[in-house]
Amino acid sequence: MFNRNLFVALGSALLLAAGGVAPAMAQTTTPGATTNGAETTVRGERVLPGRIGGDRSERPQTRNQRGRPAPTQTPEQVKAAATVLAASTNSGCAVADASLRGENAEKQSVYEVTCTTGPGFILIGSAPPSAVDCVILSGQADITRSRDAAADVGLQCAMEPNKDVLRVVAAYAVEAGVHCTVDQGSSVGKSAADNVIYEVGCAGADGYWLEKTPTGWVTTECLKLVSRNAACKYTVPAEQVATVTKWFEGSQAAACAPTEVRYIGSNPNGAFYEAKCAQGDGLIARFDTAMAVQQVYPCAEAQRIGGGCKLTVVPDAAPVAAPAPATQQ
């Protein structure tokens, strides 16, 4: 579903009489912002091979996986050893429970831990110790299996709390200020800035990509991603139509009853969306930052906005008849 160049610049300038409309580019956001777009390039089709499990040689492989028993330790010893390892990583994990998963080829112990908050981890007793996020491992496995259902996806987290990826990603959505009922979610790769990106699906509404930056979250609506040759796997067009329909409520666009919608771009005056209406002419609506409709342009009058309507066929204007030649008296 994903193109390698996931965020492609729109092909032509978008013009308004009041000023140019440009695609949403990288923006500085504060944590919790939900309407700003993240202009990123997800490399390697969502996941960087070798960074979070894409390269088989770098995925945690254990002797347990190959049928060799792990050294015997009591549960208390396992948790104590894992807690020491976790404290030596930048995972931020306060260990709630731990499991010894075996040894890797270098005879380094491999543990799985659940954490009091956030995702769990695979911990490797290397020098220095390393930690691999269970949510990211799961996302890489999903991508690998989508290409080959029988592919070896390496060691995966097996403790029950760690298999609940949705719990973790839904919590990230709350942190990012996404106000919807999250019903699906996973990690989908890394941005050009090396930040992890997660996707969330919203029940009956447009979903989001969430980019975790050092200063907070940057969110991008799936409707905007469509305009950049990307796609959200947890969002369908009907959910995007439902979102725009809700935005139209109580405005001069309310009578439209959209059947198809698309994001066009933005300029200092606002963001522009096109809607194909159930009956009559389609329209382009301009929204402010709170997603309130500011102005509506019927498709017949919107040719200069982002190249005009694409979802509604606008008849060509009737040619003006030439005046009849004057009759000589």
UniProtKB/TrEMBL annotation:
Residues 1-26 form the signal peptide. Residues 48-75 are annotated as: Disordered. Residues 48-61 have a biased composition (Basic and acidic residues). Keywords: Signal. This is Uncharacterized protein.
